Please model this.
Amino acid sequence: VIDTLAVVGVGLIGGSLARAMRGRGLCREVSGWGRREAPLREALELGVLDRFSTDPAQALEGASLVVAAVPPGAMAGVFRAMRPLLGADTVVTDVGSIKGGVVDAARAELGEALPRFVPGHPIAGKERHGVGASDAELFQGRRVILTPLPETSEAALRLVRDVWGGCGAEVVEMEVGHHDQVLAATSHLPHLLAYGLVDCLARLDEKQEVFGFAAGGFRDFTRIASSDPALWQDICMANREHLLEILGLFRGELDGLAAALEAGDGDRVLKAFRRAKQARDRFARLMEGRLAPESRPI
Amino acid sequence: VIDTLAVVGVGLIGGSLARAMRGRGLCREVSGWGRREAPLREALELGVLDRFSTDPAQALEGASLVVAAVPPGAMAGVFRAMRPLLGADTVVTDVGSIKGGVVDAARAELGEALPRFVPGHPIAGKERHGVGASDAELFQGRRVILTPLPETSEAALRLVRDVWGGCGAEVVEMEVGHHDQVLAATSHLPHLLAYGLVDCLARLDEKQEVFGFAAGGFRDFTRIASSDPALWQDICMANREHLLEILGLFRGELDGLAAALEAGDGDRVLKAFRRAKQARDRFARLMEGRLAPESRPI
Model:
């Protein structure tokens, strides 16, 4: 059991981790640090935090574990501010959706605390953001990827593994670059495509009211385009090399489908659709096996 | 009230319409016609049909309304077979996801019955198909687009409007080509993109297990890639001109986003994401206002 958990950036993910740890008795106290007071006060009123401060020295006082739950672009500043305030045994982790940029920031800013930094990423989210959407069960049955560095201490890694495992998540380890490649494919590219499609159709919509004739398939396909634009721009820019690589593969796929449509080559279209359905059904079974029954509609 | 409703192709849509009409007392009897006996027998056992035959002469006997609920590519053959069997007052409608190709088939095959043909398209579906997934409430609060021809009789149009209205749908009229353009944007392109993305990632997946690290956003985004590949290939091929046009616009959008990522132009990415979120949130409010409470998660 951890004495004091300090959460930096008390939004959906930071707030959910605080709720999950408190609810399961994994920490005695939660302290919040953020730039703005209003969301911290909201978190206090919701019972997510026991105390907060916009001053990192106060907020991090006595913290055994500090979780940086801010957008990737804000990590460097957060690490820089916390470095002089960390105790000799304080473990630091993060929940950023990209790991390469966060690890670079940690190497540049954490100094002697680097071995006690464990880069992490819970594969969980909602399109709603903010502490009001936080949920103690958000990580139940989900995967958390840790990307430890050569310098990372065994004790720090064990503590962060135990915290996530205690919150119901399955912890896996991965190399930093591999994480960013996989997430570019399964998360960052789908967000880019959903935002891109809605942006493209919004221009048509002025004359044609296309959204008025969209149904459930469109609603599901574009749900992620309701996510926080600033956060996703930050993630896409931070991971742009891997994102551009997989986007290139996808544009090649679209070139092939467009050529098949132009040539009237229905067989080629059918083969691609069949391969996709097979893979999608396999994914659905995979996810079904991992998730709690109440979140099962696949 | 209609005496006998004949459903050609008793799958998700045909079966749901039969259930909706029977359940609301809009017809006295439902007859089913299909190529294969097994799904017709299943529909009979489920109580969706009162009788069926694989022989159109038997299946259509005495029908006041015939609903063609087969994939677009099968419409011409169905119209050809039914033409000599239609009564002088029998009204024909269809539920095809494209209207241009279906109208061409009707003009070529229905002859003197053409004025009693009302092209239609309910904007409703599920990724599950087959009569086992049919649902009397599938059209509740949904839109149905009718694309009447200059030849269409007022009486036939009124009957089909009343049937859909009676099933809880909102009926709107649209010009054939406009329908196909709008649906290319809101339905056919999203399906093509979802199938294309999953097909593209499935190739990566062999070495990287990418699907194991995908979450709820990916699940929603790719849900439509679990739809029937043969049906969607048929729809995409039948509407390939409009689909290629909107695909061209979308590829232009991706070119712009890729250029912005390459140039490190985060502002341009953020502007596109913000416009998209605004439009998606507008769409969510639109749909929320139209749907029954139990289908509301947007």
Observations:
- Confidence is low (pLDDT under 50) at residues 292-298 of chain A.
- DSSP finds eleven helices and nine strands in chain A.
- The two ends of chain A are 36 Å apart (CA to CA).
